[in-house]
Amino acid sequence: MDRETKEHIEVGAFSIVAESGAARRARLHTAHGTFNTPAFMPVGTQATVKGVNPEQLRAMGAEIILSNTYHLHLRPGDELIRDLGGLHAFMGWDSPILTDSGGYQVFSLSNLREIDDEGVVFKSHLDGSPIRFTPESVVGIQENLGVDIMMVLDECLPSGATHAEAKASWRRTLDWARRSLDARRKPECLLFSIVQGGMFEDLRTQSAADLRELSFDGYAIGGLSVGESVEEMRAMTRISAGALPREKPRYLMGVGTPVDIVDSVEMGVDMFDCVMPTRSARFGRLYTEDGWINIRNAAFCKDPAPIDAECECYTCRNFSRAYLSHLVRAKEVLAVELCSIHNLHFYQNLMRRIRSAIEEGDYADFATAFRQRWNSAGGTQA
Amino acid sequence: MDRETKEHIEVGAFSIVAESGAARRARLHTAHGTFNTPAFMPVGTQATVKGVNPEQLRAMGAEIILSNTYHLHLRPGDELIRDLGGLHAFMGWDSPILTDSGGYQVFSLSNLREIDDEGVVFKSHLDGSPIRFTPESVVGIQENLGVDIMMVLDECLPSGATHAEAKASWRRTLDWARRSLDARRKPECLLFSIVQGGMFEDLRTQSAADLRELSFDGYAIGGLSVGESVEEMRAMTRISAGALPREKPRYLMGVGTPVDIVDSVEMGVDMFDCVMPTRSARFGRLYTEDGWINIRNAAFCKDPAPIDAECECYTCRNFSRAYLSHLVRAKEVLAVELCSIHNLHFYQNLMRRIRSAIEEGDYADFATAFRQRWNSAGGTQA
Q1: Active-site pick, A100, A154, A210, A217
Q2: Is residue A252 located within the same domain as residue A325?
Q3: pLDDT grade, residue A62 (50/70/90)?
Q4: What is the reported pTM?
Q5: Beta carbons of B75 and A338 less than 8 Å apart
Q6: Nearest CA-CA partner of A161 in A119, A216, A122, A200
Q7: Does A4 map to a domain?
Q8: Please, which pLDDT band fits residue B93 given cuts at 50, 70 and 90?
Q9: Last residue of a domain, one of A204, A239, A274
Q10: In a domain, A382, yes or no
Q11: Least CA distance to A87: which residue of chain B?
Q12: Which residues of chain A make contact with B53, given a CB cutoff of 8 A?
């Protein structure tokens, strides 16, 4: 994080410092400092990365985190957060924050919703009260939060949508993207739009081409990691990333496993988020260089080794598999913290290695070696 | 903590450096370093202080923690911990550890038990399997754990015990104390015995006198904070502490509120433990200089102030009451961590102030002022 440059470089500037094939090593400059890409954003849905405090996030090298418009609007409320000085002050994190727009949550969490060209009405998953989101209101909420990167409201397709349905849905999402740009009031809050188009190559290409015409600060690839095959995800990522402008950051939403990230960087993706490292940690699934282990396995009860002998995280420097195994069995809250720190550190460390490999110009070799070691251990099952 | 002195001063040496009335400011030297008294020991029943990691415990100034023989014997097992290098290595805490003997847990957690002069048989609260504790086995378990201070097995009286019952019980506990001394094999593991005698002044005095005849490294006052009135607790503490040898540390088990501690130090008590700061934290009850607040109160939802403007803990330096209120409502695990850090820091800070007041020779004035401010805020209700 080049905090000292934040006064001198224009907010939104995306500086590519190295390329290796389609993979890019860059920096995105925001109102709360610069972060390095390819970047993985730990997920802090409710204004906290579950089980990990901001000091621990910094210590593992996280430079940007993700939070969620839908959840924070419902509780504690974006106006309350605005009145308390914004989301950074509220959660004690003074580095960049991106917020998901809430589109995905509206379509996945609320079973009672009505959508029209104007926006979407849904019921709160907390108390059932009706809430209306429009492209304009979602920008307004994120400006209240004062985040560094806002996402536009998009319509998330149901799985199994036909080509005609996906095409109609894209027209609406494109219109919403235009309205989001018009609604923006704070230039220091960057705005990213989202490529959709289901699993249809022509719609993905069209979607990216349509958005290129509009002046967004970055472009996300949405609608993936929703149950499709790995091959479909790779194909849609490759097409979407390839059709987006080189000079802007590309963000693959909600993805993914370590191998998903290594592969997608090779296609030119710059930013990632995923609940997997923290959610897996809560179920005792821990990443190592040779795939993952489940700490609940009886074999680890007496194991004096750290989770991963190569890892330099707080957990691995101080605690054994046997101790973690005990904490999990005793249902101690420290288990959540120590396992989450390890998994998030694993992801941050992976991103550091990815960035180094791009700088050294041999990203394809790095990616091939990583895939081989990971897959030979069955690691992709995580 | 004078870690550099640990090679030079005899383990078990108790150095009184200042006195103010009956209150003493001292240092106890153990195999894992020296700690300052009066000391409060955070409770780490299952080899973890709930919600707080060892780094955070050190940062708040904790120099010794308490763990539990009964719980660790049942899970993960003291032999497993021994084979992994002892409790310090297991839980990543290299400073002093005291373990409660398990007597209290045997008598409070297990509803099926049989006691005789030899020891006690009870059923595990985890799986109902039968376990036998004797004075000898309890010393052996604690030596397996490799702790710095071991407690003898004692019989805990049921509330409402008669004088005759309490007297008979004391005879057995005294016999057990003698057997514990004989059973000890590791001189680096200090051994404390426990004054009992219910709410009977003569039995408390007799109990202390009996134990003085035996060469323990320190003396605990047990059987208090079990539902008796504050006046009874104070009377029994005063009698017990006054009858114990000046040159050995005195430990009041399971006590107590901040005022309990301030009062008991004035009677010559040196060591304390209590689950209150961590348990209260999990229920949102947070200590301040003017009593306690409940962070669940709606008034705090929009409050930008820290828990306590005078507090220098990690939580108060970084987060508002409004944020903690949100975390508690959202049932986020970070709430447990941040609230526990604050409450434990409050206790450690209280002990620092207590030690300073004794050094300055005006402990009675300090205690009077503390009681007045605390009681005027209704703080003792916590």
Answers
A1: A100
A2: no
A3: very high
A4: 0.95
A5: no
A6: A200
A7: no
A8: very high
A9: A274
A10: no
A11: B323
A12: 314, 334, 337-338
Identify whether B314 is part of a domain. yes
Interface A–B counts its CB contacts (< 8 A) at 102
Asked if residue B94 and residue B41 are part of one domain, the reply reads yes
Q: How far is A333 from chain B (nearest CA, A)?
A: 5
Position A111 scores a pLDDT of 67
In chain B, how many domains are there?
2
Could you tell me the pLDDT band of residue B381, with boundaries at 50, 70 and 90?
A: very low
User: Which residue is closest to B90 within chain A, CA to CA?
Assistant: A323
Q: B199 is written with which tokens?
A: 């709410």
For the residues of A162-177, what is the DSSP string, one character each?
Answer: -HHHHHHHHHHHHHHH
pLDDT at B162 over 80: yes
A186 with A303, same domain: the answer is: no
The pLDDT of residue B1: 44
CA distance A82 to chain B (A): 11
Cα B139 versus chain centre, distance = 19
Whether the pLDDT of residue A381 is over 60: the answer is no
Token output for B86: 């002892």
Chain A interface, best mutation among B52, B296, B302, B323, by max A CB count within 10 A: B323
Cβ–Cβ below 8 Å for A75 and B329: yes
Q: Determine, yes or no, domain membership for B186.
A: yes
Q: Average model confidence (pLDDT) for chain B?
A: 94
Distances (CA, A) of B295 to A196, B283, B324: 43, 9, 7
- CA A87/CA A67 separation, integer angstroms: 9
* pLDDT of B319 strictly over 80: yes
Q: Which of A142-156, A175-189, B342-356, B364-378 has the lowest mean pLDDT?
A: B364-378
Q: Does residue A165 sit in the same domain as residue A208?
A: yes
- Residues of B in CB contact (< 8 Å) with A are 46-48, 50-55, 75-76, 80, 83-85, 90-92, 301-302, 304, 314, 318-320, 322-323, 325-327, 329-330, 332-334, 336-338
Listed in sequence order, the DSSP H helices in A283-332 are 314-318, 321-329
Given pLDDT bands bounded at 50, 70 and 90, which one contains residue A382? very low
pLDDT at B382: 37
Pairwise CB contact (< 8 Å): A330 & B54: no
Contact A332 B80 (CB under 8 A): no
Last residue in a domain, options A249, A274, A299 = A274
Do residues A145 and A220 both lie within one domain? yes
The answer to whether residues B130 and B265 belong to one domain is yes
Q: Where do the DSSP E strands lie in chain A?
A: 14-20, 23-30, 33-37, 39-41, 65-68, 97-100, 113-115, 120-123, 130-133, 149-151, 190-195, 218-221, 250-252, 271-273, 285-288, 291-294
B267 and B285 both lie in a single domain = no
Subunit contact B304:A53, Cβ cutoff 8 A: no
Residues of B identified as active-site: 100, 273
If asked whether residues B193 and B317 sit together in one domain, one would say: no
Closest Cα in chain A, distance from residue B239 (Å): 38
Of A161 and B249, more confident: B249
Which is it for the CA torsion B345, B348, B350, B355, positive or negative? negative
The ipTM, to two decimals, is 0.95
Range of the domain at B64: 37-274
